[in-house]
Write a structure and sequence with these properties.
- There is one protein chain.
- This protein has 3 domains: 92 residues, 3-Layer(aba) Sandwich (Rossmann fold); 199 residues, UDP-N-acetylmuramoyl-L-alanine:D-glutamate ligase, CATH 3.40.1190.10; 143 residues, Mur ligase, C-terminal domain (Protein-Tyrosine Phosphatase, Chain A).
- Strand 12, helix 7 and strand 13 form a beta-alpha-beta unit.
- The strands form 5 sheets. It has a 7-stranded mixed sheet with strand order 7-6-8-5-11-12-13, with helices on both faces. The protein has a 6-stranded mixed sheet with strand order 17-18-22-19-20-21, with helices on both faces.
- The chain is globular.
- It has 14 helices and 22 strands.
- The chain is α/β, with parallel strands linked by helices.
- 31% of the residues lie in helices and 23% in strands.
């Protein structure tokens, strides 16, 4: 029997990992955290893993434990972590433990500044439809999957979303440096996380290191429309096989995007060039796993996307509304352009929130230039209190407007005022798109959009 303790068990990834490990018949899981929010709380409670008390309890750390897994939310001076080190207990970060559990499997890792969650979701969707067992870790909830992490004894494949953010409070390496893939895919590089990677060059270097970590005679699949990825692919070790991909042939008919392959049309539930590129990358991964092209294309027809990734939340006969996790410049531009292309006959009302550490910094704001140009009506919202909480220098409405470079774009700092303006719009003949990695200061985005459309 193996006994594992999770420090910061309430994290989005950590609680999923804890649940996945607890399902193994020979594992006993415990955990601690100083705050646990929904949906982590309910999910942990449902499987009997919710800590009986909130806080850190070093007395829980004893020599009976086989290992401790520490989440990014914990600090380096966490009393439970310190106790584990004192007792000489094995300490793993989240990605270290994923690698440890899949050392003998074929590891597929999907990285990139954008599209990695969706691409991972597509691969998993196809594997599941074709009854191919796989361990996995993905950064968002997928339709048809109970958890975001799974381990099994019978699978020979492990599919991981490769996040470039830091591993743990005691390990500053990006998470995807620890997975050592046999098959790697990179979707694109667009500078992000400037609190950790202060220059574009430093950020790009992390992807070069990732490529160097590919197992011997491995595969590097990459989007060839990205200049930095082309350079990385040209300079990988000679034993690595490089495989570029691009946007597949497609047509839009009656509001539905179809991939065209050998004269046949395969209708999709998702749309937009980024999604099409994600599908093409996933298609190449699946081909490496022995899945035929036509099998893949039939399986992908009912893929509806990952949660909060260009997710349709409301529709009437004359209007439609989406919400999206987009917050970085590349994601924002791609999402706005995708909705405008798909609904070319409608006016697009686009609203985004500056919420992340990077997006709220004066020196990063110019990266947003032109990102919302395709929107007919455009709003950008940010909360000055969030800036103060993150201990950043204040930014002004004027700075944000100038950075986006769109004449009719309106910048707001009051969530109630934004909601009032959106309520005044007649959505007949329009598409509504709300984008944020946050909640517009506590707004239930899906419910609000349904209210606006009267759906």
């Amino acid at each position: 029997m193996k006994r594992l303790h999770f420090i910061a068990i309430g994290g989005a990834a950590m609680h999923n990992l804890a649940i996945a490990v607890s399902k193994k018949p020979d594992h006993v899981v415990t955990g601690s955290d100083d705050e646990i929010f929904e949906p982590s709380r309910s999910r942990l409670e449902a499987v009997g893993l919710l800590p009986s008390a909130i806080g850190w309890f070093p007395e829980k750390i004893t020599t009976e434990l086989d290992a401790v897994i520490v989440g990014m939310h914990a600090r380096a001076d966490n009393p439970e972590l310190i106790r584990a080190k004192e007792l000489g207990i094995d300490v793993y970060s989240f990605p270290e433990y994923l690698y440890h559990q899949t050392r003998k499997k074929i590891r597929v890792v999907i990285g990139g500044s954008h599209g990695k969650t969706t691409t991972t979701g597509i691969v998993l969707h196809v594997l599941k439809k074709l009854n191919r067992a796989a361990d996995y870790m993905v950064g968002a909830q997928l339709e048809g999957f109970d958890t975001m992490v799974k381990f099994s004894y019978d699978s020979q494949i492990a599919v991981f979303e490769g996040d470039e953010y830091l591993t743990s409070p005691i390990d500053p390496r990006p998470k995807f440096h620890l997975y050592r893939p046999h098959i790697a895919l990179l979707t694109g590089i667009a500078w992000d996380h400037i609190n950790v990677f202060p220059t574009f060059e430093n950020y790009v270097e992390q992807f070069k290191i990732f490529a160097d970590q590919i197992e011997r005679d491995g595969r590097l699949i990459y989007f060839e429309g990205d200049e930095q990825l082309r350079i990385i692919a040209e300079n990988v070790r000679p034993d690595i096989v490089t495989m570029p991909y691009n946007t597949p042939e497609y047509v839009i008919e009656n509001g539905i995007t179809n991939i065209v392959y050998k004269g046949e049309k395969y209708p999709l539930r998702v749309f937009g060039e980024h999604n099409l590129q994600n599908i093409q990358g996933a298609r190449m991964i699946c081909k490496q796993l022995g899945i035929k092209e036509t099998e893949f294309l039939k399986a992908i027809e009912d893929f509806s996307g990952a949660s909060n990734r260009l997710q349709k939340v409301a529709e009437t006969s004359v209007s439609v509304a989406f919400k999206d996790f987009a917050h970085s410049p590349s994601k924002l531009r791609a999402t706005v352009n995708a909705v405008k292309e798909q609904y070319a006959d409608r006016k697009l009302v686009a609203c985004m929130e500056l919420h992340t550490f990077s997006s709220l910094q004066e020196n990063f704001l110019p990266q947003y230039k032109g990102c919302m140009d395709k929107a007919d009506v455009a709003y950008v919202y940010f909360n000055p209190e969030v800036i103060a909480h993150k201990r950043l220098q204040p930014i002004s409405v004027e700075q944000v407007k100038a950075a986006f470079g769109k004449e009719n774009l309106e910048v707001l700092t009051d969530a109630a005022e934004l909601a009032a303006k959106l309520k005044k719009i007649d959505y007949s003949g329009k598409a509504l798109l709300m984008m944020s990695s946050g909640t517009f200061s506590g707004l239930d985005i899906a419910a609000f959009e349904k209210e606006l459309l009267g759906a």
